[in-house]
Amino acid sequence: LRPSPTPQQPILILIVATLASCQSPRSWKFSARADATVLGARLYAASEWTSGDYFDLSRVSIRRNAYRYGAGRGDLARTADATRLDRFGLSFQPWFDKTSINLSYNRIKSGDRDTRTASASLSRSLGRRISVFANGFADLDDSRNYGMFFSLNFQLGDTGFASAGVDNSGGRIGYSLQASGNTSQRQGSIGWTASRRQVEDASPQHSASASYRAPFALLRGQVDEVGGALRGSLSADGSLVVAGGGMFPANRIGQSFAIVRNAGPHSMISQSGVTIGKANGNGRALLPDLIPFYETEISLDPTTLPDGLEPAFTSTKVTTGYRQGSVVDFGVRAIHGAVVIIRDWAGKAIEPGYLVELEGGDSAVMGYGGEVYLRGLNGSNRISINRGPLGICSATFSYNPNATAQPKIGPLTCQ
Predict the structure, then answer these.
(1) How far apart are CA 180 and CA 166, in angstroms?
(2) I need a labelling partner for 147 at 20 to 30 A (CA). Which of 7, 59, 75, 399 fits?
(3) Where are the beta strands (DSSP E) in 41-189?
(4) How many angstroms separate the CA atoms of 350 and 366, rounded?
């Protein structure tokens, strides 16, 4: 496949063999597997041999279904019930092109039936958004049992996908068109699919669906049409979580979740840098899909907070257990702040740089134009400024906590 090995193309070979047996000495299973990477190509070979009365979980399940429902006569059943199973594969890219090629051979011996199949697939990217894929298989013991498939695939935006395909199965040619847009975990995201399938001597099949991820559930509707017959369905998939001091109707919960509280009314919440949803009017939100045992960054966008509110922090990392949750409290509170304009006894603006001390509250540095921003104000407030050689001056003022957030107060005379 390539001219010669190089230090960047090592030869790696892995061989694994196992032997399992049941209580009876006549019940056994032997399996061997070999993987090799040679000159950039991957080779795979495996073989399994079982005695007639050896049973594992797959064989037990197939036999049980066949007994209960009369099922278990297809290729899957023969694979699980096989006394011998051989598999060989080769994957590589030729040196002259970027096409990925996969070749495989399978042999299934089940009872008195011996099935051998061969398949090949090709895939190649034609650019950043276009790719082609082709696949074919043949039954080496039955020339009438074969199939081929070819598709041209397109990436539409960030989440959209479209494909056009043609296939031939047992001499019948089929055509398919499909387009879709995936629904993300973000609240308000929309997903959709549309497809058409046409096989020779058969009625065309049409299908369309749309989904919407609401804060309380994933809503989905679908319509199918075959030969003039219509079928439709509607579904809602959600959950109800009672935790963290609140009740949250939500989409399906994943392997772990997080409850966000004290985030401010209707603020935007992000998970690992992706905006997931919006807090409710009480500042609570549910993040339904976290990866357990991994650190997840949860952030609050402070620009979405109403005026007059401030969080204790805007980002943190949490780790949750499997099927467990975590609580994140951003500590948003009303800051009761205002811009205060201060003049000296002569009516001139206090120079910038002086420290303005609020009695019983925070201190702040005087800015330009005699303006200073003070937080933690009460109904009645007193400030003082140490101006060095000019002495200490003070002033008092009133503040209405229910007034417009961050109002301007003054000018006040500091004397």
Answers:
(1) 18
(2) 59
(3) 41-50, 84-92, 100-110, 113-125, 130-139, 146-156, 160-169, 172-181
(4) 8
To which residue do tokens 């200073």 refer? 372
Q: How far apart are CA 103 and CA 120, in angstroms?
A: 5
The per-residue pLDDT for range 211-254, each reduced to its tens digit, is: 998 877 889 999 999 888 999 999 988 877 777 677 777 777 77
How far is residue 305's CA from residue 311's CA, in Å, rounded to a whole number?
9
Report the C-alpha gap between 48 and 87 in whole angstroms: 9
Q: Is 412 exposed, middle or buried (0-12, 13-18, 19+ CB in 10 A)?
A: middle
| pLDDT at 72 (0 to 100) | 47
Residue 109: partners with Cβ closer than 8 Å, 6 or more residues away: 82, 83, 84, 85, 115
> From CA 112, how far away is CA 81, in angstroms rounded?
12
| Burial of 276 per CB tally in 10 Å (0-12, 13-18, 19+) | buried
Query: How many residues are listed for the chain in this entry?
Result: 415
- Tell me the pairing of strands 338-343 and 408-413: parallel
Q: Which of 268, 313, 261, 312 minimizes the C-alpha distance to 284?
A: 261
- Per the structure block, which two tokens stand in for 406? 């961050």
